[in-house]
Input
Amino acid sequence: MYISKIIIEGFRNFPKNIIEFNDGVNVIIGHNNAGKTSLLKAIGLIIDQNVPKKLEIDDFSKHISLADLQAKAPEVVVSLVIDQSEGEDLTSDDLVTVADWLIKLEEPYQAKLTYRFSLPFEKHGDYHAALMGCTTKQDAWLVIKQEFLRFYQNKIYGGEPTLRVIADSSTLQKFDFQFLTAIRDVERDMFTGKNTMLRDVLDFFMDYEIKSADDAVKDKATKLAEIKALKASFTAKAGGLIQDLQTRMEAGKEHILSYATQTGATFNNALPDFDGAISDVEMYSALKLIIGYAGLDITIPASHNGLGYNNLIFMSLLLAKMQVNADGNYLGSNAKVFPVLAIEEPEAHLHPAMQYKFLKFLKENKNKRKVRQIFVTTHSTQITSAVSLDEIICLHNEKGVISAGYPGKVFPDTPNGQDAKAYVQRFLDATRSDMLFAQKIIFVEGLAEEILVPTLAKYCGKNLEDYHVAVVPVGGRFFDHFLALFDTTNPYAIPKRVVCLKDRDPEQKENTESYYEGCYPYNFGQDTLNYVYRDHLAAKISSYINHSNIRFFGQNHPKGKTFEYELCLNNADSKILITKSISNKNELEDLLELYAQSKPTADLLGRLGKSGPKKELKDAISTLVDPSWSDEDKKKAIIATRYLNSVGKGENALELANLLEVNLGLPTVATPGSAMSIQQAFHVPYYIKKAIRWICQ
Output
């Protein structure tokens, strides 16, 4: 069996939510305050027997209007739906455990547990009378806290909650819910045998070679007899030590007991003395955890290790204890049936490589069925890279409204859909999965946009970090693969606001040819008798123009081509584009100077050389008679074409971003005294302005 879903109503930032789980590992991610910790605590309200079930006023969801508060006392209702696992043996203890809670009898069976924290019915009249005088929600919550919270009762029901059948507490004890919070004192919890957890683990694994022997080799009676003999032998040896102590303290004991005689403690022939015995269990308290180093003849106490290392040791002991708790031979009818491990932010104490290794270990542990279901909350891209898309649950908080997305479920069960899923799975490595954690996303085609868009946003008066926007390069051909994760027409999608900055990339092909090739805007549509034309942007913008959370933006005008081309079109009068690594620097500077002097198009063409690309540019502009192309448009196109042919994507983008940051007067790694320290005008392309405004709403 496994917990297949949780239904939460009125608890913290979950006004009413249903979240589905996997049979196995569940990695719950999301930005801060998305509800990850609250989700684990909601599970614990039902199956964690070590936490108080009574809630505080701040545990109620505040997404309730004053009118609703006056009409009905708020309550918290949390339900766990438990499903039959694939391949589960119906004769196992699982079905026996949930038999009284079944809501579906046929296979696969389904059971339900419901926690309810509510005001008793007899107090409803007083409640309504008291709340009618409240004029604000704040006043209402204060009245509830001061006058009614103490009357609230918590109950756990099994089966259909409307039947109000109380779940048997002894059966609930069959769940072993171990919750490791992000802030934990592992030194207090594990270093000596005086600690309950370590003592229990030691006692279980003592004589383990006997306990774990195959029943066909040693039956149960034989095992018990051997262990009993070892315990008797230990007690006999310990008795010898006690006798040695008695001998050593013989003279001293006479002096000690003489005081007893003088004080009258020997009244009525009572004679104080010393005696004792030590069992192996009592000796556990003398043990302490140490760390030895292979090849070095040294040991150190565990308390002297780093916090991250000790957390790993603690978690290993906890898993060992869960194995103890689930062993029926050791605990009999008190054994746990369903061990559940919940870990909050394991990355808090583990470096990236250890995070990855730790998740791999947890998955292997689950496969060996020592822990039946695992829940991990995280902000770590290393951890998300260690699991599959199917194991990720993404919580998203948009203006207080919590929703859950399931990246593994958004792809259609078709060859193309599964190919897209496989591509995204490979893509979401440790450097790319930040898209799952961000509040909003800008997908771009390549490295240049990834580097420059955050800086261009600053020129628009927006800092993308303030809006929790991630800029993610995915390649122009693969936008659709990633949009499947966020397309809210699919109920499993993550409802983040998404912008796609896509290049127009005009293309043409001869009527007799079967393939398209890239062309420039001044070629596009100029010879419709012999060529067919298309671009990569117009259809995308049209398809998503009314989408609830996704938009496409790009150079959607007849003069547009690519990101770099558009930057130059909008800044043909600015030498800020001329970076250190750019090629054809002298030519570009001359073209910019000719443009600044308002020289005619012929002068700019005259500056170009006679090489292949330059000759093609000169021929295309010289023969361009389309009246929609003004002389100004042609000059800008000449400069933008030569600029596009001169930039290297990554290096140029880094240098340009640096120059633009200096131009804004922002902190930078630029050399002090740079010529760009005086602010110059720089024009952000209109489509990028629109995209920044839309994503930052």
Summary: Confidence is low (pLDDT under 50) at residues 670-678.
